[in-house]
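WARN no homologs supplied; continuing
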Amino acid sequence: MSSTKLASIGAWGANHLDEMRIRLARPNALMSLSLLGLLTGVLAGGVIVLFRLAIEAAQEFILPGRGAENFEALGLEARFLLPLLAALLLVGMFRWFSRGIHVLGVAHVLERMDRHQGRISSRALLLQFFGALLAIAGGHSVGREGPSVFLGAASGSLLAKRLALPHNVIRTLVGCGTAAAIAASFNTPLAGVIFALEVVMMEYSVSSFIPVILSAVSATAVCNVVFGDQPVFMLPSVHIGSLWDLVPVVLLGITAGVVSALFIQSTQSIAARAARLPFEGRLLLAGVLMGGMGFLLPQLMGIGYDSVDAALHGGFTLSLLIMLLFGKVLATAVCIGLGVPGGSIGPVLFIGAMLGALLAGLADYLPLMPANQAGLFALLGMGAMMAGSLQAPLAALIAMLELTDNPKIILPGMLVVVISGLTASEVFGKESIFVTMLRAGGFRVATDPLAQAQRRIGVASAMERSLEQVGHVVTFEQAGKLLQTGPRYLLVDTESNQQVLMPAAHLARFLDAHETADADETIDLLSIPASRWQVAAISLQANLQEASDLLEQHSVEALVVKRLNTAGSDKVFGVLTPEMVESAYRD
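OK structure emitted
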């Protein structure tokens, strides 16, 4: 095949890809977004399967006996040395490979969504994968769900980056990856969808809802193929008695809100006090402190889902429940506050299970407490802590419903998540643990409704494509031929390698006023009576929020939408004015 034919085929393919990207820039490109969401779910599900298998293999190799979290079988010296060794390995990995990336997990996803349109690097993905693997296998009190969210979000982001998709699509695929992670981690696809919309995307719209659902379903299917469809926790039968049983549910909600605020404040205080230390020093300090706590109470090491199962079945004494409850709060606050690259979702569920089981264990001492309800109250405690600490009440409620497959959990579940969330946020003024950690790092997450609306739409869907590019000096004959194609705007090249934009109608008006001019006579488009606007370039991948920011920063009157193609020249796709930006998100 000749090189000319190959080049023409390549150009045809590039043009079709560009048209696809322009279609995806529209907020209603549901079919294409749905297919991408499905693909993101499969990709994210595969990454999370590898992550879980790696954690389980590492724990099986390190820990004696049988069971992936059998830290209790370690000797006293090993309980202390294992977290310290993991911290040393983390120090080496971050020093060699991080290049300044220190904040990971859900907080990093929120920061990338707020400031970088959801773009996540492959370096950060690798850091999260191996960093969380070392931390969890090394006995640090962190969870795998936060890292899984990051890995799922990064999978969607990198897929969009590979296909050079618009930034509004990147944000949707990050949400798809988030939903895939939660769905695959707990076998709860609907809770994954709600968590993605409630915590990461912070919006509910049809254009994001449908692809996120497909992503959660496909990721759950991938994980079920490997791990089966068994729930993460083996729950006893849940029985809801009379309305009087709701009185202790209210008490549980208030208590969970207080414990959530305590956990968030502890994490915030530790992060603030440790900020003056170098990052490597913080990791080593976390290793020493976690080693000491693991030495005294090995159930605090790792995620602790084996202990959660025991609490759900009433397997702990009251004294041990108290020690595990407050010990886990302290251990997780230390690890998260000092920057260990793990998640807080798993430990939050651990704390909630201990709190609920503790309250159920007080049935003999408190009035109106139903007897033999450790499983129910441990489950409600998990949902309550998720609502209070993560500020994700709807995701917590749906997760409880999916885990129990019992609609009777809805009434007490709604009550406990609302009370816990309100107690933590309104009584104690606490934001979610994710936002708290972002603020500790000097970041702020904006929740401006206007910015949210602008981020959903790509510039390609709002731009005017009726455009001709021309030099500033043309003949009357050339000007007439130029207007025959009916462009709305002319992009005029100046002698200083700058460009200005002018309405084509103003050139047409000038030609009408000079009908008798000679065809070879020249026209300087920079001198004729016409409106001319200064312009700046913007990427075809950008969204309307980026366009608004660029118009304000450069004080220009229009933007030229471009993409640098493989040949190294700028390809112009259209122009964008402030009026077009405003019209696009108001329609």
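The chain has a mean pLDDT of 87.
OK
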